[in-house]
């Protein structure tokens, strides 16, 4: 419960901070982005914390917080998706996938290709996030068994990269359409790039360190077997 309370406080702080960054936007877009951005940071923290402990042993006590970070990240992204569904596409699932109703053709036509594809990618990431959050408990681990639970938790990597692609589209490409006025760039664009680079660097560095450590142990094992 202490971990839940601390992560909830961090999530609330992130939410308020991002809402202030987008204070000039319309309420729907302001809170849509605030919930999405706060969720992204929590998920990034849960992704980077494990590799970080390979370099900073003082970070090891923070490892148990990964579970709560993932859970609250999922809760925030559920609110993010709900705001889009209610406020942006107004419960029209075809609009969510980039289609608009054409009154002359009396049919839906593709209007925003990138918007539909990015949302489909976001939905896939949301499904994986919900699955991971639903199984982030000791009860789920006991029911699924360690191997089954670990297999499901491997979904965190595809979930992360689907999230990155989804966010990158809305930060860098969505408002570049020639038939609409281009707004000012989102001030968080390059903070997002930095966050992704840090997570990728930590995970790559931890992987390389693990490979080197295993390679260093191989001669010792061979000597032991010969002895």
Automatic annotation (TrEMBL):
What residues form the membrane-spanning segments? 39-57, 69-91, 111-134, 155-176, 188-208
Instruction: Name its cellular compartments.
Output: Membrane
Q: Which UniProt keywords apply?
A: Membrane, Transmembrane, Transmembrane helix
Mainly resides where? Answer: membrane
Q: How does it sit in the membrane?
A: Multi-pass membrane protein
Indicate whether Glycoprotein appears among the record's keywords. no
Q: What Pfam families is this protein classified in?
A: Ferric_reduct (PF01794)
User: Which parts of the sequence belong to the Ferric oxidoreductase domain?
Assistant: 39-155
Protein name per the record: Ferric oxidoreductase domain-containing protein
- Record lineage: Bacteria, Pseudomonadati, Pseudomonadota, Alphaproteobacteria, Rhodobacterales
